[in-house]
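--- STAGE predict ---
source: upstream dedup step, 1 unique chain passed
mode: sequence only
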Amino acid sequence: MSSSCWEPRVTEQLTITRLGHRGDGVAETAGGPIYIPYTLPGEIVTVEAVAGHPDRRHLVHVEKRSHERAEPVCKHFGTCGGCALQHWSLAEYHLWKRLLVVEALAQANIVAPVSDLIDAHGAGRRRAVLHARRGVHDVLEVGFTAPRAHHVVPIDACPILAPGLGGALGAGWAIAEALKPAGKPLDILATATDSGLDIDIRGSGVLSPDRMTALARLAESRKIARLTRHGDSVAQQGQPILKIGRAEVPLPPGAFLQATAEGENILARMVTEYAGNAKNVADLFAGIGTFALRLAERARVSAADSDLSAVKALEQAAGRATGLKPIAAQTRDLFRRPFMSAELKGFDAVVFDPPRQGAEAQARELGKSAVPVVIAVSCDAATFARDAKILIGGGYKLDAVSPIDQFRYSHHVEIAAKFER
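--- STAGE serialize ---
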């Protein structure tokens, strides 16, 4: 490049005053807040502009470090987009994560006691979605996406994954090598189960007989319990099982699970505690029965979820388990067809655990109901606060709010809460 085309790097120095809701450091300027990832309150940093994003900056150098800054646990931190906050001490990180819930409630004008954050990382994450792409010079890359970008950062290790996912990265690379993804993205969803690795391939296109054979051999050599493509069987050494309470659930391919086993256990314990002596409970957005199968140890349960395969797995598990009270499960889109207030008559407690967008329609019907106890589980503080406001407007009192961290080093926080009439 000729010297006439060269442009000098333009940098500036900013002081970080706080952390934003996504974990980025925030510098207050005359032009408004500027967001800089991987920075901490009190730090003075040198930054440069991000093309197309006037309110964002790239971190170039930390001139004055915070005493709260910690050494990241992963060599890929800062290039891989999986974690946002490895550079912060866990104690301060925990305080901030609880504050996310406090602030979300305050913005909704809700006053309620929020307990200390419960660390539910446990042994680590038991689900991971690996991405495989052909990168620069047609080099295969398998890993996670970069922060706020679409390109893949190749990785060979991830310290936040549970031991049960120990073989997932190697298997992901081997699967990508066998399929040789070209222009189309290839995603590899790996789940640690009680029976071993369960892997579902997505985006591969139609597989030739030769590639199906190669994948089957790969699954056998790497001791993968089940290998599927968009849920269709490629190879299976055994049925992936997850023990939930007294039941053993045959997992559907790509089944939704709580992020960590510790997180699931803590949430289930809180839900059953909040349900108390309820004898007739509705579990809405029930999935494979994370709560329903445990609640059924002492209560009749009506469970509903939009995922047919999850509902079938719940029914199979309930049918084979001993010592459970009846579970009536149904497939139902609770966004379009929430349980109406008239349908909620007779329930002593209702549990709802929706996806990130919350359960606004269902909350409105609950607000019209006479159900004595409503238990909310949420993975998004803002939609939780919105739904909580609807319930409170319907006459409920928010008695308990517990933030739970099963998404370590991220801005995501789980919440368990109890509402009573």
